[in-house]
Write a structure and sequence with these properties.
This protein is of the alpha+beta class. It contains five helices and seven strands; from the N terminus they run H-E-E-H-E-H-H-E-E-H-E-E. 38% of the residues lie in helices and 10% in strands.
Length: 146
């Protein structure tokens, strides 16, 4: 877990390849060959936060305290990045290098579904499992609330 935290974890998900690897490609741009080579050789995949958070809880324990820490870590990533690209949504994938430019579909369902699953089931306290907390993320922008 420590290696993954240090080498693959980003504010928007997990990189598909360590930055030190010779085939690492941190930007999804250029001709079709360069784009395809970066797709699985360094791109950041937001949907991987879900499985990673589950693994994190297996290592750190599934106590309410550990779930609170995981909520701050993993859902905090998401809440800081939902204003990029599609408002209230997450992209299909991002560049592996900062500033983690959003790529692919701007309204991709897989990362959004993973965040909902994390918040509603995986990271809930034991006494909250069947209680509804309302919206997944409350976003206020220009007078509108989502």
């Amino acid at each position: 877990m420590q290696n993954t935290d240090e080498q693959l974890l980003t504010p928007l998900g997990l990189r598909s390849l360590n930055k030190d690897h010779p085939q690492y490609c941190g930007t999804h741009a250029g001709d079709i060959f360069l784009r395809y080579s970066s797709y699985n050789n360094g791109a950041v995949w937001p949907w991987l936060l879900g499985p990673y958070a589950e693994g994190w809880l297996r290592v750190h324990g599934a106590s309410d305290e550990a779930k609170f820490e995981a909520r701050q870590l993993f859902l905090g990533f998401v809440s800081r990045n939902v204003f990029e690209g599609g408002l209230g949504h997450l992209p299909e994938y991002c560049d592996g290098d900062e500033p983690y430019t959003h790529r692919g579909c701007p309204f991709y369902v897989r990362p959004v579904a993973e965040i909902i699953r994390l918040r509603k089931w995986v990271l809930k306290r034991s006494d909250e499992i069947f209680r509804d907390e309302g919206p997944i993320l409350r976003i206020k922008a220009k007078g509108f609330e989502i």
